[in-house]
Amino acid sequence: MSEGRRRALRILSGVLGGGASLAVMGPALRATWDSVDKQTVTGTGAFVPVTELATLPEDGSPVSFPVVVEAPRDGWNRMPPTQVGSVWLFLRGSEVWALSTICPHLGCGIDWESGAKRYVCPCHDSYFDRDGTALTGPSPRGMDRLETRIVGQTVEVKFEKFAMGTPEQRPA
Amino acid sequence: MKPLWDLIDDRVGHRQPLRSLLDGPVRGGAAWGHALGTALVVLFVAQCLTGTLLAAYYSPSVTDAWASVAYIELYVTGGSFVRGLHHFGTGAMVVVAVLHAAFVVIRGAYKAPREPNWWIGLALVALVLAYPLTGYTLVWDQLGYWASKVRTGITGTVPMVGPILQDLALGGNDHGNLTLTRTYALHVIVLPVLTVALMGLHVALFRKKGYTPPPAPAATRTDRYGALQLAYDLCLGATAVGVVAGLAYLWGAPLEAPADPTANFLARPEWYFLPLFQLLKLFDGPLQVVGTVVVPGLVATFLVALPVLDRGESHRVQARLPWVLGFFALLAGMGGLAGLAVAKDFADPRYQDHLVFSRREASRALELARDGVPPEGGAFMMHRDDLVRGERIFRNRCRSCHALEGYLPEEPKGPDFTAYGSKAWLRQLLRDPESPRFFGHTKDIEGMPSFADLPEATLDQLTDFLLSLKQSEGIEVEAHELYDEVIEAQECEGCHDFEEDYAVEGPTLAAFHSRAWIRQMIDHPGADHLYGEMNEMPAFDEKLSEADRNALVSFLQSLSARAAPDVWPYIDEPIVTSTQAGRSSP
Questions:
Q1: For residue B387, is pLDDT > 60?
Q2: How far apart are CA A108 and CA A102, in angstroms?
Q3: How far apart are CA B429 and CA A132, in angstroms?
Q4: Interface pTM, i.e. ipTM
Q5: How many angstroms separate the CA atoms of B186 and B132, rounded?
Q6: How far is residue B172's CA from residue B62's CA, in Å, rounded to a whole number?
Q7: Nearest CA in chain B to A1
Q8: Between these two residues, B58 and B452, which has the higher pLDDT value?
Q9: Cβ distance B70 to B362 under 8 Å?
Q10: Average pLDDT of the segment spanning B470-490
Q11: How many residue pairs bridge chain A and chain B with CB atoms within 8 Å of each other?
């Protein structure tokens, strides 16, 4: 075999090898990137009935209620009615307030201390007053307030999740 | 840059092994046949890559496995292509492995001192075949599920150890979650680890003994590996991957309907297992073990013993003719068995009928999965769909008397349901009611005149009118424009009532072909306002549940839209009345 043909073959092998690598790696990288910015889990962003107005304590102390969403998607599943999270609800004068139970620091679940009348995130000891304002601890902002509306006697909450660890509130 | 490479070489020492690789001798000169092994390594690396991606989306549980694969197909960008790469990559590995072995046989490369590497190679071939065996089960579609049933069933019949092996394969007594989790562990951990280990050993031993040259005198020439063989290796590896990518792009990987223990499936193995499948069919009954264990065992023994049997000094093919011919006769035999299996299926109307049905179920399943699969799983999703459920009932309970889309019952007793309720169907019914397509097979339903003599435009209006009845409860038939010309003139009302459920000679046409009308026909075809005394069909009101009968109605109503004209060639064919064809007795 002449040196010229050998060289041609070596170039061909490089071209073919590169082409084959691209043919596999291209779609593979595309499929890997697929999950970026994709709504694979749904169930947030819409008003959901949570409880009856009469169930909220007159004294304004908060009570947590589960948020049940009708048919959320999770990857390949369409779920039956599913608890996607919970909210703290309380009467603030004549208004109904809703606070997310998700700590804005790193996402742990926030508890209410009825004796001290304040919220605490047990993971990293962030404290908040009843209205959700940050008192002490590492949380960069107060608890996330959620929109509410009253339909008849039913309290509905617009259940949303927000980015964690930022001073300002941003959608997750 | 140079000093940097020097620094790295000081610490890693990559130059010397690289140099010895590139300068390594290729005795007898570079050859395409020598590149087959490298192509296998390249294909294996690609399989690892695509497999890792699929694993990132896959969920090994009975309720989620099919759904997660459907998600890859439907919702992951590039997912369908990656699945296709993985699917055809397996087939490509089988092809290249066989070619690799064939080249080794031709060169006599299994002979001393390379016998151990031949045996390791055989073990690697077994591993290559173990991937699809486990991989197909993981998809948990009808194909993977029923194929696995057959396979574990065969395992169970092996004397002595069979039942134990079966329990180990299934992770217990039956197919379920535990089957999937352990099959997954096998497919993505155990098999790859074994493959890498054996492949490493295979390559290391090969490097030690070098390429097997062709018999003298051609063996005198020696090449540097880097001069040409490397280019051959790269070209062939890349071409193999390119072919796989092309097939993946053209066809993608198949996905049948979700695994369903209640819905049978004519599972056929992948093409490379067809020889075994055909063997299984040739030896049935008590001889089954011959096809499943004895013959494959003999073949394996022959392959393992090859280096021991063929011990002569010469590497020349002519000197080793019996062994070389034996090997290729084996391949030809396998090809012949596979061909036989394909030919049998091709000529088998039952298989073809099943193929059409399973394709329809597969596409319906993907359609349903687009909206999300319930957590109860894919089979549940299919069961609650009226079209799927209705068709399954029709196939089980109605097809013994009614033909459908090319499937003919042995003793047809009622009308053919192909294109039922479509305009073409009704037009043909009006033209030729006594054809075997309609009432030719019913003994007592007769007397409906043919409307073939009506002008085409009038026939067209009449079919439109009749098909419009399903929207209305009962109509003032006298007010219709065709009343004087057709309905009155042909005495339709002598046999059919249009307004309420009066008992006349023939079935009522009030709300003809509506859901309620079809339901009545299923429930009580012999009711006075339907076929009355002429009826021969059983009443199904107590034979099928309410939900089943409703599903059947949905299915029957879907038939008008689904059949393409080439599926029902008899529509608009010349009139054939029962006296000319169809009925055997007068």
A1: yes
A2: 6
A3: 75
A4: 0.88
A5: 11
A6: 14
A7: B228
A8: B58
A9: no
A10: 75
A11: 102
Q: What is the pLDDT of residue B120?
A: 98
| pLDDT higher at B220 or B108 | B108
Q: By the CB < 8 Å criterion, does B503 face chain A?
A: no
pLDDT band at B204; cut points 50, 70, 90:
very high
DSSP type of residue A134: B
**DSSP helix/strand/coil, B473:** coil
- B129 part of contact set with chain A, CB < 8 Å: no
Q: CA nearest B491: which of B504, B476, B479?
A: B504
Q: What residues of chain A lie within 8 A of the CB of B230, using their CB? A: 10, 13
Measuring CA to CA, how many Å separate B276 from each of B74, B155, B292?
A: 34, 13, 7
Q: Cite the DSSP H helix spans in chain A.
A: 3-33
Q: How far is CA A8 from CA A12, B234, B401, in A?
A: 6, 13, 69
Site of tokens 């004397």: B159
Q: How far apart are CA B371 and CA B295, in angstroms?
A: 48
pLDDT bracket for residue A111 (50, 70, 90): very high
Residues B354 and B266 sit within 8 Å (Cβ to Cβ): yes
Contact B64 A28 (CB under 8 A): no
How far is residue A5's CA from residue B71's CA, in Å, rounded to a whole number?
48
Instruction: Name the helix (H) or strand (E) containing B12.
Output: helix B2-12
Average confidence (pLDDT) over A104-122: 95
Give the mean model confidence (pLDDT) for residues B468-490: 76
- Chain segment A14-35, per-residue pLDDT in tens: 999 999 999 889 988 998 898 8
Contact assignment for B232 to A28 by CB distance below 8 Å: no
User: What does residue B229 show for φ and ψ, rounded to 5 degrees?
Assistant: -60, -35
More confident residue, B315 or B378: B378
**pLDDT-derived band at B218, boundaries 50, 70, 90:** low
What residue in B sits closest to A39 (Cα-Cα)? B75
Distance CA B107, CA B222 (A): 16
**Predicted model pTM:** 0.89
d(CA B241, CA A15): 13
Contacts of B375 in chain A (CB under 8 A): 77, 79-80
Give one word for B323, left, alpha or beta, with left for phi > 0 and alpha for psi -120 to 50: alpha
Q: What is the DSSP secondary structure assignment for residue B498, as one 8-state letter?
A: S
Q: What are residue B516's DSSP bridge partners?
A: none
pLDDT above 90 (res B237): yes
d(CA B189, CA B486): 75
Which string of DSSP letters, residue by residue, matches A42-100?
Answer: ---SSEEEEEEGGGS-TT---EEEEEEESS-EETTEE-SSEEEEEEEEEEETTEEEEEE
* Residue B304: C-alpha distances to residues B117, B119, B274, B292, B327 (Å): 11, 6, 22, 18, 12
Q: Using one digit for the tens of pLDDT, what is the confidence trace for B565-576?
A: 555 555 555 544
Q: How far is residue B553 from each of residues B383, B391, B514, B560, measured CA to CA in Å?
A: 15, 10, 9, 12
Confidence class for position B584, pLDDT limits 50, 70, 90:
very low
What are φ and ψ of residue A26, in 5° steps? -55, -65
C-alpha B250/C-alpha B81 separation (Å) is: 9
